[in-house]
Amino acid sequence: MKITQILVLIFLFICFSNCNNKNPENDKIEYSEIEIKDKFTNKLKLDYADKLTVAEISPLYIGKISKEVKISYQNYKTVEKNKALKKYKFPIQNSLEIFIDTTRIIGIPMGLYEYSKTEKRNDKIANPIFIKNISNDTLTIGYAEYLPIIIEAKNRNGEWQPIQERMRFECGNGIVDFYCPPNNIVICAMQKYGGNFKTKLRLKYESFASKSSIFSNEINGEINEKQFVK
Predict the structure, then answer these.
(1) Cα–Cα dist 12/3, whole Å
(2) 20 to 30 A Cα–Cα from 11, which one of 58, 63, 73, 151?
(3) How far apart are CA 1 and CA 6, in angstroms?
């Protein structure tokens, strides 16, 4: 009898702890209600490209949904807190929600070889990307400091075509995955291009491990048609 009572108490304690860790009010917060705290005010400008570029989409924030979120342009510091020291599942369709917010402007993070430099905001215009883990599992969502996301655009035939290719590393030694828990979000930056070709744009998340593609909402944008060519 005593063992049964102890087991019941343990079960109730676990349930109580889980309830305390969840904040239903925060789960109801819309992306438009999240205030992005950016400490930098340097002037931003459109970028122009004349060929297929390498995607460098990395997290500025990983964490719980709240009405105020402070972003960091030192992406390696953001990833450091969420290193996957054990194996988690990889995203499949309907496990991530990806939303491009065209109503706001942010900068893009520091580059791959800028670890030793003081934090700064690169001077290119970007729109915030909100990625939410809508599954019940903690998911491995990226590697090193990058997410497997590229920008696609519709060509003149109305077909989706990449204008970026994924970041790849010649050597995989020392590269660590990073994760996102359930109901948490990742905030990234989608670089905004100028050009003479107005078209539709979207993001494509593609996990090689699960062989699943997940797409964002579609937005209006402009590019240089040479961006379709490597």
Answers:
(1) 14
(2) 63
(3) 9
Query: Does residue 14 lie within any of the structural domains?
Result: no
Please give the structure tokens belonging to residue 136: 């019940």
Domain count, the chain: 1
- Predicted confidence pLDDT, tens digits, the chain (230 residues): 456 655 545 555 454 445 444 555 666 899 999 999 999 999 999 999 999 999 999 999 999 999 999 999 998 888 888 888 788 999 999 999 999 999 999 999 987 777 678 899 999 999 999 999 999 999 999 988 899 999 999 999 999 999 999 887 766 566 889 999 999 999 999 999 999 999 999 999 998 787 889 999 999 999 999 999 98
Q: Looking at the domain assignment, is residue 12 inside a domain?
A: no
Give the contacts of 216 (CB within 8 A, at least 6 positions apart).
98, 99, 100, 129, 202, 203, 204, 205
Contact present, 204 and 213 (Cβ < 8 Å): yes
Indicate the pairing of strand 149-154 with strand 139-143. unpaired
Q: Would 75 be classed as within a structural domain?
A: yes
Contacts (Cβ under 8 Å, ≥6 apart) of 169: 144, 175
Question: What's the predicted TM-score (pTM) here?
Answer: 0.86
- Name 171's Cβ contacts closer than 8 Å, sequence gap at least 6: none
- Reference 73, options 110, 128, 124; nearest CA is 110
Please list, residue by residue across 123-159, b when 16 or more beta carbons sit within 10 angstroms of its beta carbon and e when fewer do. eebbbbbbbbbebeebbbbbbbbbbbbbbbbeeeeee
Domain that holds residue 162: 35-228
**Tokens read off for 92:** 């499949």
